[in-house]
């Protein structure tokens, strides 16, 4: 069996690889770690603006460790997979408190920190510490599955074990940082999911998938399941000066720690809540579907009005969120899930249109 030639990959990287990504300009363990967490299941073009804003607010591990979790989640809003942000905050606190702000230089210690798996630990070692670290992210899996024509899904235990062996076998001892970035770049820019640019690939001459005309069918896709659909009613409860009621979700679970619109499993429950609080129902908006990796969530937005004295700002886990916040309003730093943020923006636009219509009368 032909083995992957790291020299060919490195030669390609020197000429065609990505050398000016934001986290490549100062490759400290902290900066590399944040970028690797953000890049999990997220494309580079999406991550870059989030990463830049994150670094502006949290330039080092101590600042991140001592920041309120609400501020961390706020800067993560829209990036998804919010457990990553919560684990980022926990790990920053551990590194700051137990390692004196210095990331431990071993695979075992790094892998023991919240949110850091074997591949992420390998990337931190290779990209920021110059140690030999093996990675196996989605891009590298795709390159290896095609190069060796592996005809089983990469999520299967036996396939995972095989891929780790092949990744370790190919990883050189010299220029390990360049090789690590090169493999990620090769998968992201050449050996792409659809329409791979095989004519530009440095491994084309010995790629088994190309030789066997299997590039379209490899890597093997995850077995498809029909996603279940869940229903929820989100209450957009406004008070007369354009503030909307939010509640903080539990620290763990779906959208853990984020601020959300009050949720109900049935419209009858919404009506009971409105009656109890003395609120007035206004309308229901069309259903909005938000898809997670394991289910669809169909959201029915319910709009209502409520007098502020009914619910105090002092109520734990409750907040009146301004639809048009000023820049110095601390409430703008709350973490919001993507669908809640969109509903608040829609409500703000609705209010603005209503006010514009009123001014024209």
Please, could you describe this protein's structure?
A hairpin with a 3-residue loop joins strand 1 and strand 2. The protein has two domains: 206 residues, Endonuclease III, domain 1 (Orthogonal Bundle), CATH 1.10.340; 132 residues, Nucleoside Triphosphate Pyrophosphohydrolase (Alpha-Beta Complex), CATH 3.90.79. Helix 9 crosses helix 11. It is an alpha+beta fold and 361 residues long. The C terminus is likely disordered. The chain contains 14 helices and eight strands.
Tag the structure with descriptive keywords.
Nucleoside Triphosphate Pyrophosphohydrolase; 14 helices; alpha+beta; 361 residues; Endonuclease III, domain 1
β-strand number = 8
Q: What radius of gyration results from the CA coordinates?
A: 24 Å
| Gross morphology | globular
- Beta-strand residue fraction: 5-15%
Order of helical and strand elements: HHHHHHHHHHHHEEEEHEEEEH
Highest-level CATH class of the largest domain: Mainly Alpha
Mean of all residue-level pLDDT scores: 91
Task: Specify the CATH homologous superfamily of the largest domain.
Answer: Hypothetical protein, domain 2
SSE inventory with pairings:
Elements: H1 6-16, H2 29-39, H3 44-57, H4 61-66, H5 69-76, H6 83-98, H7 107-111, H8 118-129, H9 138-147, H10 157-170, H11 176-189, H12 208-211, E1 229-239, E2 243-248, E3 259-260, E4 263-264, H13 267-277, E5 280-284, E6 288-291, E7 296-305, E8 318-322, H14 338-360
Parallel strand pairs: 1-7
Antiparallel strand pairs: 1-2, 1-4, 2-3, 2-8, 5-7, 6-7
């Amino acid at each position: 069996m032909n083995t992957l030639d790291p020299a060919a990959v490195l030669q390609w990287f020197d000429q065609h690889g990505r050398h000016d990504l934001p986290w490549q300009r100062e490759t400290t363990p902290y900066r590399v770690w944040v970028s690797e967490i953000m890049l999990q299941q997220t494309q580079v073009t999406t991550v870059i603006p989030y990463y830049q804003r994150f670094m502006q607010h949290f330039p080092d591990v101590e600042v991140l460790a001592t920041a309120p979790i609400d501020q961390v989640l706020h800067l993560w809003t829209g990036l998804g997979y919010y457990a990553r942000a919560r684990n980022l905050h926990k790990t920053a606190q551990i590194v700051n408190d137990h390692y004196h702000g210095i990331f431990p230089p071993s695979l075992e210690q790094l892998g023991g920190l919240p949110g850091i798996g074997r591949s992420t630990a390998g990337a931190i070692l290779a990209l920021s510490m110059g140690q030999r670290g093996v990675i196996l992210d989605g891009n590298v899996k795709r390159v290896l599955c095609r190069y060796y024509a592996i005809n089983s899904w990469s999520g299967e235990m036996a396939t995972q074990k095989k891929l780790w062996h092949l990744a370790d076998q190919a990883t050189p001892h010299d220029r390990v940082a360049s090789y690590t970035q090169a493999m990620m770049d090769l998968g992201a820019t050449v050996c792409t999911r659809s329409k791979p640019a095989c004519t530009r690939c440095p491994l084309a001459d010995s790629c088994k998938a190309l030789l066997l005309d299997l590039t379209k069918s490899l890597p093997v896709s995850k077995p498809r399941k029909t996603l279940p659909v869940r229903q929820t009613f989100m209450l957009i409860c406004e008070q007369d000066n354009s503030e909307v009621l939010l509640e903080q979700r539990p620290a763990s679970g779906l959208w853990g720690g984020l601020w959300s619109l009050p949720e109900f499993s049935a419209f009858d429950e919404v009506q009971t809540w409105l009656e109890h609080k003395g609120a007035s129902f206004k309308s229901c908006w069309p259903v909005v579907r938000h898809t997670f990796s394991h289910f669809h969530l169909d959201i029915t937005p319910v709009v209502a009005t409520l007098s502020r004295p009914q619910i105090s700002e002092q109520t734990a886990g409750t907040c009146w969120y301004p639809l048009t916040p000023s820049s110095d309003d601390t409430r703008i730093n709350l973490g919001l899930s993507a669908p809640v943020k969109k509903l608040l923006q829609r409500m703000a636009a609705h209010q603005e249109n209503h006010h514009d219509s009123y001014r024209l009368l």
